[in-house]
Amino acid sequence: MSTEPGRSCPLAYRYSAAVFDRTPDLQADTLYVVGGLYGNLNALERIEALFAAETGNKRMVFNGDFHWFDTDPALFAEVNARVHRHTPLRGNVETELASDDPGAGCGCAYPSHVGDADVARSNAILNTLRDTARCHPADRAALAGLPMHAVARVGALRVGIVHGDAESLAGWRFDPALLDSPANQPWLDHVLAQARVDVFASSHTCAPALHTRPAGGTIVNNGAAGLGSLPGSSSGLITRISVHPAPAGVPVLRETVVQGIHIQAVRIDLDNAAWQRRFLAMWPAGSDAHTSYWRRVVHGLGTATESHTI
Predict the structure, then answer these.
(1) Does residue 288 have a pLDDT over 60?
(2) How does DSSP assign 53-108, residue by residue?
(3) Which of 107, 152, 184, 282 counts the most CB atoms within 10 A of its CB?
(4) 18-51: pLDDT as tens digits
(5) Cβ atoms of residues 133 and 172 within 8 Å
(6) pTM of the predicted protein model
């Protein structure tokens, strides 16, 4: 395994799938899982509006990387405050923002198919964002104390909420390509059985998936809430898990129903022109984030490389 910054997976990121075999941390009739907000306040406002339309016992969990593009100190503080009104988990971004150790770089644990230039830019983005986080020492300290995972109960289903995969904060085994890989199938069945969950909800690899196992169990990856996660579309995605069908106005892209519970990918449409202006004010042409992400900000999910830039 590589020890290079941005490719290494620190030991502190790792856990056993057995940690999910516990009393649920939260219960809800409707659960929103928001991964990869990436500091996109425009997307957050849209998500908040959708969540407000839900009824009954509802909870929203931000499963990591809610910071990334938000290098403006005021924007960073606002995103942080609004996320903390709900249930935040830390992703690799929040973990490394709270640390001064450069050894993990961005903490993405990028696999070999991601190019060195992409990795270097992500490390540089993290360093720039860390300078912003240092303007908010209390917020930065709070990020270090966030949990890496959670267990929720929605109706009859137990849901393991992670940033990466069932064994690592920055794991890639819930990426769509690996979910379909024959070599990964025994591991998927093993971790679902060990965790004693019906669903794993993840993000990290920035590529969406809704995968049902032949032996039972579902893996849902929302791609990214704050970055285009569909081909040719700037819309992000979140995961909705509920005992209720989605209310009118909640744009469900894809759904599976397990034991009467709706597991859905929900599209996050926003005023993309406004988000682009905000992005460019922080990351102008030629900057690291602009080079890595501008095409996806404007056009959504494209090539395999573009789907793995965080």
Answers:
(1) yes
(2) T--SSEEEEEES---SS--SHHHHHHHHHHHTTSEEE--HHHHHHT---GGGTTS-
(3) 107
(4) 999 999 999 999 999 999 999 999 999 999 999 9
(5) no
(6) 0.95
- Choose among 153, 167, 144: nearest CA to 91: 144
Q: Which residue has the tokens 């057995």?
A: 18
E strand or H helix at 242, and its extent? strand 236-242
Q: State how far the alpha carbon of 268 is from the alpha carbons of 60, 152, 289, in Å.
A: 15, 23, 21
% of the chain residues with pLDDT over 90: 90
* Strand pairing report for 87-89 and 149-154: unpaired
E-state strands within 103-234: 149-154, 157-162, 199-202, 208-212, 218-222
Over 70: is that where the pLDDT of 63 sits?
Answer: yes
Dihedral sign of CA atoms 63, 65, 71, 73 in order: positive
